[in-house]
Amino acid sequence: MDATTYAQETKQRKAPLTLAQAVAGLPITEWSHADKIRFFAWFLVRRCDRQHFTGTDIGRCYDELDLQRPTGISPFLNQMSQGRSRQLLRNASGYRLERSTLGELDARFGAHPNTVHVRKLLEDLPAKVPDVAEREFLDEALICFRNQAFRAAIVMCWNLAFDHLLNFVLKHHLAKFNAQWATSLPKRNQKARVQQIGHRDDFSELKESEVLTICKGAAIINPDVYKILDEKLDKRNTAAHPSTAKIGQIQAEGVIDDLVTNVILKLPL
To answer: Which of 59, 116, 164, 167 is the least crowded, having the fewest Cβ atoms under 10 Å away?
Structure first.
């Protein structure tokens, strides 16, 4: 991604990330001071639209995240701005990132508008997801997505959406679900340990695909939501099991966007 393209995409974002949001899911406490300073420099340039920054600006970043500062910030900045492979350029206004270094940091930490959209979907969900177990799935899905573990992000987002569906059934449509189970899957119902779902753990009697079939038959979910869940279950299986299929950022964003927008937010608890 070149600087012009990145700048154009940055302008399209509705709201800039705060520093705390930008580091969420990143192992910043394990980084060296040099790596922290490079990240802070990138954040100031890309997220805060700063043309230049100073050691004081970098220090404020440390303080905002409650991170211990190095003994001195200036020696790091001076070292990065010297030599043939300098990472910073310096003038009377302060420091700025050298072009190739900025490009490397963009590739590592930058995000396309759709990525920002998906992150915001996940970040805004806690206020709409009261269940504790769902919050745990949500936190893990966001961590996986931020760290580009896209297979894991798909798996965790499916877990979140499916758990949400089960909570939706338990809270609003349990009688309809139980009645339909005997109709849609009579043999499965007869052989099950329990023939009526009463608690969350009882769903373990059924495969995920069977739960979807029963929900569709009982009109607990409409055909569009069923189609989305059925399709995303296949994608979850592809992501979760060893295969040669490549799972990248675009695929993960599509799965997460669809599950959050068209399933979780359409089935309010």
So the answer is: 59
